[in-house]
């Protein structure tokens, strides 16, 4: 689906040199792909993984790799910055309920981070499809799994 003029204006793609620490983190992700596409893994079955990202103002989730078909929904909106694997930096205003779907063929993936530029928490839900995706899920550590109360 093509972006509207308003959507295009909301994106700011800029190619600039990243700080050394960010470049080093990106290089580490390339060596050891990070499958944590959220802050917390809320649910996992043989068909799906459900993630939540909650970022306080100024907080950032580091570089991670998407290999599975997935969709995300912005729960409450906000303004964010992403560093993308092509070397660009994007700033974008998310709207409550905004949802995007992404699919990946065999061997395809996306690596990026996300930083909250706004003054309120920014919350996203991400659902990865294990069943029907062309790639094998990346492993995730126990530390990101929701702990039962």
Order of helices and strands: HEHEEEEEEEEE
- The class by helix and strand makeup works out as mainly beta
Which whole number gives the mean pLDDT? 91
- Over the alpha carbons, how many angstroms does the gyration radius reach? 15 Å
For the record, the CATH architecture stands as Sandwich
CATH class: Mainly Beta
Gross geometry: globular
Largest sheet: 5 strands, antiparallel
> Count of DSSP helices?
2
Q: Report the end-to-end length measured between terminal Cα atoms.
A: 42 Å
**Using DSSP, what is the number of strands?**
10
**Domains (count):** 1
Spatial order of strands in the largest sheet = 1-7-6-9-4
pLDDT under 50 segments (min length 5)?
none
The CATH topology assignment is Jelly Rolls
The CATH superfamily turns out to be Jelly Rolls
Q: Beta-strand level of the residues, as a percent range?
A: 35-45%
Helix content: 10-25%
């Amino acid at each position: 689906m093509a972006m509207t003029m308003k959507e295009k204006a909301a994106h700011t793609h800029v190619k600039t040199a990243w700080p050394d620490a960010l470049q080093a983190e990106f290089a580490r992700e390339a060596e050891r792909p990070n499958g944590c596409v959220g802050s917390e893994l809320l649910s996992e079955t043989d068909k799906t993984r459900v993630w939540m990202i909650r970022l306080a103002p100024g907080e950032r989730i580091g570089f991670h790799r998407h290999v599975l078909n997935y969709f995300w929904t912005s729960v409450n909106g906000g303004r964010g910055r992403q560093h993308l694997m092509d070397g660009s930096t994007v700033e974008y205003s998310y709207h409550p309920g905004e949802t995007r779907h992404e699919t990946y063929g065999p061997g395809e993936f996306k690596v990026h981070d996300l930083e909250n530029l706004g003054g309120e928490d920014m919350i996203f839900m991400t659902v990865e499809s294990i069943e029907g995706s062309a790639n094998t899920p990346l492993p995730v550590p126990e530390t990101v799994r929701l702990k039962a109360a």
